[in-house]
Amino acid sequence: MMAWSLAGHDRGKLYVIIREEGDFVWLCDGRLRPLENPKKKRRKHIQIMKRIPAELGAVAPEKWKNEEIKHCICVVKKELAGGSYV
Predict the structure, then answer these.
(1) Are 40 and 23 in contact (CB under 8 A)?
(2) Whose CA, among 23, 27, 34, 55, lies 20 to 30 Å from 71?
(3) CATH number of this structure's domain 2-82
(4) With a threshold of 0.90, does the pTM exceed it?
């Protein structure tokens, strides 16, 4: 799934959720927060998007790459700007 950050210095940024554990999630954007160094954030500080682009949905989370995550975030932002993805 994907999520928007609602609080903190990264407010308004789109991430991919790569792991969930209790009240925390680990977020990745493929650029500043690569898979090797995900951001740990409380669940109450994010807004989850229920849909995920087909590019990521077709691949198992263990096999995701930073380039794929960057591409999917870019695609979702473009679709949101056009109004066709919500």
Answers:
(1) no
(2) 23
(3) 2.30.30
(4) no
Q: How far is the C-alpha of 4 from the C-alpha of 48, rounded, in Å? A: 6
What's the Rg (C-alpha) of the chain?
A: 12
CA distance 24 to 40: 7
**DSSP 8-state secondary structure symbol assigned to residue 46:** E
The answer to whether 69 and 37 have CB atoms below 8 angstroms apart is: no
Q: What is the DSSP string of 1-32?
A: -EEEE-SSTTTT-EEEEEEEETTEEEEE-SSS
Among the listed ranges 7-16, 26-35, 48-57, which one has the minimum average pLDDT value? 48-57
The pair of structure tokens assigned to 86 is 């919500």
Q: What is the per-residue pLDDT across 2-23, written as a single tens digit (0 to 9) for each?
A: 899 999 999 999 999 999 999 9
Residues in Cβ contact with 56 at an 8 Å cutoff, skipping those fewer than 6 apart: 16, 64, 68, 69, 72
Mean pLDDT of 46-53: 82
